[in-house]
Amino acid sequence: MPVRAAPGAWSQNLMGRPLPQGAAPDSTSAVSSPSDPATAGNDAGAPTAPATGGEGEPHSRHREARLGSTDKELKSGAAAADSVRTAPGTPRQRGEVMDAAGGSRNTLPRPCHVLVLLNPRGGKGKALQLFRSHVQPLLAQADVSFTLMLTERRNHARELVRAEDLRRWDALVVMSGDGLIHEVVNGLMERPDWETAIQKPLCSLPAGSGNAVAASLNYYAGYEQVTKEDLLTNCTQLLCRRLLAPMDLLSLQTACGQRLFSVLSLAWGFIADVDLESEKFRRLGEMRFTLGACLRLVALRTYRGSLAYLPAETLASRRGPSPALAPQDPADTHVVPLEQPVPPHWTVVPEQDFVLVLALLHSHLASDLFTAPMGRCSAGAMHLFYVRAGVSRAMLLRLFLAMEKGRHMECHCPHLVYVPVVAFRLEPKDGKGVFTVDGELLISEAVQGQVLPNYFWMVSGYREPPPSLKPQPSPRRKSQQTPPPSERP
């Protein structure tokens, strides 16, 4: 459990020197230094030495005097950047989140207190160091105090949020990759009071390998695409501004009866293989995916299965827009049991060989992969991409490289299909390949999912709600929106 320790140790720890034997960080440190395990973990949590936490303090002159010159320069630079990089646009009215007292608020309070869940082994294993150098100085300036907890193993964050008294915190801050956000959301949904728990605002601070959720929020805020420390600074500034926005959640069901929730994506085939096979290159950070993709292209595989989906335009023509954030029983109203055929108004893709299938809630698949340049989907909808077998290695490589700048839809690849959907069903037929959900492994079996609109809150840089449930056309190639005639219902 987090503890407050004697003052004096943190000034040394902040400058990168080890704590004295038996000493604990003071109230500004929030954590003691972990030992280095022999093996690295993953973004969702990894083996580390047990660590205590502590509470952060609002910014003070006394603490400023103890900061090194690097921290002071970072703070002044971040403040300057904040003044020129604010997301453009006029705020519009959106839904409200209820605070513990029953009042409504669209932003986090000032001052506020947050729980930071940090995976010290995520990405290149420098998350704790980055928190001290890039995050803590900005939080102190913005009157955001914190308690820091280090994850020690896979699913540790999931266990923590299941048992934590959430009334103590104004928000939960997740500093790692997308896997840790996945754990936190699923842990909240497993609580007896999940209706209230899932409304606790979340914040993503990137310190993993993919960081797709953070990159998407960075894009929605109007920032240019950046990676690494620049992305971390941008997302920390969003937390300091305190704006909240509702986010969709993807509800998934598998053939074995498993129920889980995704904050980002479900992938099958090429993308899932690259994600899992590149684990051995985790120390390379974001470059692991590029190397993994090149290796998988050399031994390109196809995967046989059937795919069906409910197009967003079909639902938009039948119903009005979804209400503002108001979690109810997370019933999957658009899908039927997996043992039954899909409803007749669904689109069925003939059973065939695929190279990949990707259901994506946000704009980015990694901090440097701008996968959905057509814009943010409407509330209750997600991006569905699939690539049929027959695509050449050269074209697939071209698509992958162009995706960095979001120009892959301009390649006019006849094997690539994109359509916004509200629900889908995917059934592997040959047992090949695996699924990944937010980068986490899922066994290869029939799976279906639907979007739960405006289901939880995240710190974001924009005030407006997602648009009404209407498919967003691609500004570059509208023809990719419409499936071939043979695939229409």
UniProtKB/TrEMBL annotation:
PROSITE patterns cross-referenced by the UniProt entry: DAGK
Domain DAGKc: 109-256
Class of the enzyme per the UniProt entry, highest EC level: transferase
Gene Ontology CC, one term: nucleus
Membrane topology listed for this record: Peripheral membrane protein
Basic and acidic residues biased stretches: 65-75
Gene3D superfamilies reported for this sequence: 2.60.200.40, Probable inorganic polyphosphate/atp-NAD kinase, domain 1
Name listed for the protein in its UniProt record: Sphingosine kinase 1
Gene this chain is encoded by: SPHK1
